[in-house]
Design brief:
Elements (H helix, E strand, L loop, with lengths): L15 E4 L4 E5 L1 H6 L4 H16 L4 H11 L4 H12 L14
Antiparallel strand pairs: 1-2
Helix pairs in contact: 2-3, 3-4
């Protein structure tokens, strides 16, 4: 999901929401997954994949390896991993906390 008036310069992974100018991740699209009929167990797996990708401190490649090694297989996870592996322009990043 992409927020209104967002400038998207990099790929937006499946199940991820972005917002801003320049678009940055805004979270996991839990409501969209529910509407799509994604089972609760699979949504939990996708939340873990999201955290591995954006909050673990791992590189993208390391996060992908961890997803494949640690998480139960599902169609949604495979789609997520395939998208990340095939991204040519990079993926939208998280917002860095600004110092005040």
């Amino acid at each position: 999901m992409i927020g209104g008036f967002s400038k998207v310069a990099q790929d937006v992974p499946p199940y991820i929401m972005v917002d801003g100018n320049l678009a940055r991740i805004a979270g996991l699209n839990k409501i969209g997954m529910v509407r799509e009929g994604v089972e609760e167990d699979t949504r939990k797996v996708m939340k873990r994949a999201y955290k591995l990708l954006y909050y673990s401190g791992l590189s993208i490649e390391q996060a992908l390896e961890a997803m494949e090694r640690e998480l139960p297989k599902s169609e949604e996870l495979e789609s997520f991993i395939t998208f990340l592996r095939n991204s040519k322009s990079g993926i939208c990043q998280k917002v860095l906390k600004q110092k005040r």
